[in-house]
């Protein structure tokens, strides 16, 4: 498909977010047996190996200075983001983390403007952002559980959002190098795993064959490693190449929507009126942010 046709990018972004919005089920099941760091290392190691099987060719950067972008992408998009998110969940509610991380598109727009010298999103983009955040807030706090501020956890979640925005901008820069998306994703995973080693050592990584061969554990690790990591990081990077970092990032608004709908279908949870209203606001915000992204060039 032609580069100027965004249909592939929108499809790739939606597929990515749809899968990422359902990963909470697998992660919740695996947390009964594994620690967050163990899950993180296993899923990205599996994803890395699968990407080698898909395209077993070395990536040799053609210009000096390109390697630093892959290193930064691995550090931000794989290691720091997921570690910050997981640690944040230890100190604050999941609903808090969901709301705070959803501000990532806002930071992406700022960083893209500053470092990629792209055009300025219109007012509709920012109005859509506010609308989506209001909707996400309603979805996250639609139950009887009241909002509780937990400074440490909430700050860590905010840092995770900033780190993801940095990753989105770096990914956009990498897409300009012209390499195959599978190869660039695999190289990002490689550096992410390297930076993960200190956390693995410090946090007492212990995974036994019996744990891995358990049917439930194996199935969920395969889903996270193959689907949420290998496939989805490739489709996300493809979307960034087609749409730009900002337009792709606004799809993050859909994560709590998909999570809520999945909970109704899979876990048979009831959807409240507030959550239904929140879904409507979030979808409206997504539409406005996408349609309001009138810039001189993709960022």
Automatic annotation (TrEMBL):
One GO CC term on file: plasma membrane
InterPro entries associated with the record: AA-Vitamin_Transporters (IPR050638), EamA_dom (IPR000620), EmrE-like (IPR037185)
Ranges that cross the membrane: 12-31, 37-54, 66-84, 96-116, 125-143, 149-169, 189-207, 219-238, 250-267, 273-289
Taxonomic superkingdom: Bacteria
UniProt domain EamA: residue ranges: 8-140, 152-288
Protein location: Cell membrane
Pfam families hit by this protein: EamA
Entry keyword set: Cell membrane, Membrane, Transmembrane, Transmembrane helix
Membrane-topology annotation of the record: Multi-pass membrane protein
Similarity section: Belongs to the EamA transporter family.
Protein name in the entry: DMT family transporter
Species of provenance: Wansuia hejianensis
UniProt lineage: Bacteria, Bacillati, Bacillota, Clostridia, Lachnospirales
